[in-house]
Amino acid sequence: MYQTDPDPKIATLPSGIRISYRIFPGKSKVPLFCVHGLTGNLKNFEPIATNLSKKGITVITYDLRGRGRSDKPKEEYTARIHAEDLKQLSSLLGYSKISVLSHSLGAWITLRFAEKFASSLDRAILIDGGGELSIKRKISNLLMIQGSLARLGRRIPSKETYLQEAKKSPLLSAWNKNIQNFLLYELEPVGTLSPSLVPKNGENLLGPVICSIPPYVIDSELKNMGGAMKPSHIFSRVFRSPKEFLQILKENKIMPYSALNCPVLVIRALKPNFRSGDELLPDPAIEKMKLKIGNLQIVELKDKNHYESVLLEDPFRDREIFQFLKIK
Q1: What is the CB-side half-sphere exposure of residue 254 using CA atoms within 13 A?
Q2: In this structure, are residues 221 and 39 in contact, taking their beta carbons and an 8 Å threshold?
């Protein structure tokens, strides 16, 4: 894996799973744990974590199992399993009470954490995720993320090629060092350049690379949310195991909002990802949150899409998060 400074630390959980994490120091007694999305890693939150740390908030970012430098067992991946990992990690680091900031899939994990460990949750911040969606909208969202799934399992000629492809993505309106570090962090070398191709200036270029997220991890995650890496696979799963599929849909239809007994901040990205109306938290989902979550605040990012809501700098977003965390 490409090295970036400072290197994350590794925590071995009571379950035996090793989780990679990084601490951004602050003075707050209750730390903020950041939970990334489906194909993210701990680098997702670097802009937010850095800014909050400067203001005195202790922030802890980490790689979900199956991503980054955390273990990637060939086992089932679900929001509940990730919630258990979060509880074990926070306890191992000495915290009985935490706040959680989460993005996309991370919002599902936060809700499952609240469902089982409500007394451990001080505040919850859900960024563009955790909404109750119709089946039609879920399929639409699955189609929307296909572009980000295309990099899994692909052998890329070099890290430079990988970055150049990412720069062309219509999902990012800007490019910065944080995005570059996020992408480089997920790469693993699968070969080296031949001596004849090594630059004469001595630059240490690695050869072919691959995204370190195994496709089986993402397929398991999506399966347990009623989806699949390829939309066509949904229908084959319905055909093979209709009872199991209907059970998964039933379980994920209603979010456990009642478990959120703490203050909740929902940050909603309103900029289209590809086309108008394809946001991940549509109006009906927001209205349900308003009805079912008691202590709720909502902030809208009108100039950010789903991915930009965490990857790009945003003083307004960070100010709202800081104000929410410091209010007692």
Answers
A1: 7
A2: no
Each as own residue / partner, the long-range contacts of residues 218-223 (CB below 8 Å, 24 or more positions apart, any chain) are 218/38, 218/39, 218/66, 218/149, 218/152, 220/75, 220/76, 220/77, 220/78, 221/38, 221/66, 221/77, 221/78, 221/105, 222/38, 222/142, 223/248
Q: Which residue, among 297, 287, 286, 291, has the nearest Cα to 262 in the 3D structure?
A: 297
Determine the residue type at 3.
Q
pLDDT confidence band for 2 (50 / 70 / 90) = very low
Domains recognised in the chain with CATH numbers? 9-326 (3.40.50.1820)
HSE of 164 in the Cβ direction (CA atoms, 13 Å)?
Answer: 6
Would you call 249 helix, strand, or coil by DSSP? Answer: helix
Q: How far apart are CA 307 and CA 262, in angstroms?
A: 26
Q: CA-based angle 84:49:106, to the nearest 5? A: 35
Confidence band, pLDDT 50/70/90 cuts, at residue 1: very low
Q: What's the rounded Cα separation, in Å, for the pair 216 and 196?
A: 36
Question: Diameter of the chain by CA atoms?
Answer: 65
pLDDT, tens digit, for every residue of 177-229? 999 999 999 999 886 655 555 555 545 555 789 999 999 999 999 888 877 66
Amino acid symbol at 267: I
Residue 206 is given by DSSP the state B
Under 8 Å CB-to-CB from 304, ≥6 apart: which residues? Answer: 269, 270, 271, 312, 314, 317
pTM, entire model: 0.90
Tell me: pLDDT of 15 over 70. Answer: yes
Q: For 210, phi and psi rounded to 5 degrees?
A: -145, 145
